[in-house]
Every structure is written in structure tokens, then in C-alpha cells.
Amino acid sequence: MLLVAPFPGSAGLRGGFLLLSAIALLIGFIRRRRTADIKSPRLPSLLCVSAALLWIGGVATFSAFGPDPHTSLNAWRGDVLAPTLACCVFYALTTTRQDLLKFNLTLLIGLVVLSAMLVNDPFRPEDPTHTALYGGVGRATMWFTTLAPLLPLAWLAPPRWRTVARVACGMAFVALLVGTWYSGNRAAWLSYAAMLLTGSAAAILTAKRKNISWRAMLLVVPLLALLGAGFYASSSYRASVHTGNQETPIEFLLKDNRGGIWHTAREMIGEKPWAGHGYDLDRVGDDFTKRLQDTRLQGFVRHAHNVLLDYAIQMGIFAAAILAILFAALFYEFWRLAASTKNQRDQFARIAAICGVALITGVLLRNMVDDFFSRHMVLIFGAILGMLLGLANRRREPHQLHANISVPSFS
Predict the structure, then answer these.
(1) Whose CA, among 105, 112, 157, 344, lies 20 to 30 Å from 301?
(2) Range of the structural domain that residue 270 is part of
């Protein structure tokens, strides 16, 4: 499933592998429970589980009572139920560094292939109707953003595999930068920077000892400078293509067409603020694109380019609030795990929780200027979310908590 996850046309393979994995896990769990060979898994906090159930039940309810229940419930199955199942499966499968290493190496193959496809067929801002084999630069950079928080954990592989894992981690880092560069996408660079800043803040603020390591700061500062340079270069490239070097990158950025798109979204929300226009219906996209004041956007901009606004358009304000609660609960859950006493002694689990804070930040920010919280993108988000929750909730005996890892830290 992880191997084909970046590619939009792999729905059947993804669903089949996921379902088989869930069935195999359930059978294995029942058999081992009968022999008293396994303890009950530790669940995330009640707040986190409640927010997830509210999201699942809320979207199902809005879909069932919407204008086209069959279409909406089918979308709910793929966009809500499938990623939840992926989260549960990978939560159960990921408790050690060895587990994560296997998944990371599999994800690396897809990442390299996706980056190579971007190099071969880069973003063409002069031709917004061009459709690439990888499904568009927005989807590709959303996948990059979701995968990026795993890099610090890949660096901390078990000693036996550390050399191989660090080489793979370096390849993944280069592939991310190269793929993002050829995508011409500005939001991806901002998402990386936001993840780096929130991860650093979580590392500092959740530490029991408040002394800051200068080694870590020396790593963060040049990375931020690199990401800032990537953002500026992407902005300059877009400005030169669209305006013929008549505007600076800042001037071009201030004239971004999302202002008009969001204005149209607010108008549609105002018409049906509580019930919405219908979840994942083609006619809602048709109506949206016809309303856009900028005729250049009509025909290919079919949603609000903001996941919360899209939820509000389709299912009303309450649905958008439910999604916001879900992200807030997940952020709090990872922050709580990073600060927990157990994870202060288990540094690998603590770093997993910090990476989880970065994941939630990056995915939410990326979807605030576009909307890729659906299909294969939300599925891989669910899988990586499960991996990080599984590691941060490691079910280990006291003598196993002291992981022998060496990493520049903030405490």
C-alpha cells in the first residue's frame, strides 16, 4: 500500500492491501489474546479518540442526510473511513525503530519515483490546464509535506541498519528538495518551515530541562534559510512567468487569486451555512467555478482552496468546526505525549511525538491554501499519523525505555 500510495490511480491496490492488513491484524490479535501472549494495546487519549469518532460520525451524518446520500457516503468511505482504518493498522504495526525503518524504505521508493516524474515533467505555470501523470504538483507536494516529518526518525535507525537508513534518509531529503523545486510550489516551502519551527518549539517547551543545545540551533537556522530561499525562488519564477518580470515576487504574492476564490466560497457558505450544498458532489464544483469573478479561473478551479471552507460549503459550518476540532485534538495529543514523563525517558518515542506535532502543522497549513484532504492524500496522512502515534505510545517495559540514540536535541 505504501509503495503505490503517492499515485492517484492506485485506489484498488491501496484499498485491497489495507483491508487484508486489517483482517490479518484482527485474526492475529484474537489468536494471541486467547493464548495470553499479548497485552491490550494502549489507546490514544479519550479526547483524541472522541474527536476522531466525532469526525467519522459527523461526516457520515451530513452525507446520509445530504442531497445525494449515495455519492456522499461513497466519498465518506474513501476520504474518512479508509484513512481511519489506515491509522489504526499502522498504529498497531509500528512500535519499534525496526518497524518504522521498513515503512520508510518502502516510502522512499515512491518518493524517488515521484520526484523523478516531477523532474521529467515539471510544473508549467503558463499552462494551468496541463495534467501530469503524477496528478499535479499540488498533490505531489502534499505528499512531500506529509512524508517530511518522518526524516528525523529515519536518521535514528537501529545500529545494525543505521548506515543504510542514513543514506536512505539523505536520498529522501534530496528527493524532497528536488521534487519541491521542480514543482514550483510556494506553499510547500512554507509548510516545511512551519513544521521545522513548531517541531523545534515542541522540543524546547516540552523538555523537563530547559537548556537549549546550540548544536540543534545550528541545524535549524541554515535549514530555515534554505527553505526561505526555496520559497523566494519559487515566487520569483511564478512572477516572471505570469507578469514577464513586470512585478516583484512580493507584489505578485499580494495579488494572489485566492482572495477572489475565498470570496466566492464565503458567498456559497452564506447561502446554506448549516446544511451545506452536498458532500463531494460534482454539481457543487460546477456551481463554484461558474461563480468565480475571474474568468481565467473558471473551468479548472472547482473548490475553495481551503479545506475548512470546502467542508463548510459542502456540509455547513458545523462540519468545518468538527474538522478543526480533529486537528486541534491531534496536535494536543502529540504535544501531550512529547511532554509525558515516560517519553522523557524514552527519547525515540518523544521525538516521534515531536514529529507528530510537525505533521499536524504542515498538513493543516498546506490545506489552508489548497485542499488535498481526500483520496490517496488523506490515506497516506492516516497511515503516517498511525505510525507516529504508535511510536509515541510505545508499549514497552521499563528496562526497554532507555533507547541508545544520539541526536542533537534541544534539551
Answers:
(1) 112
(2) 11-38+48-400
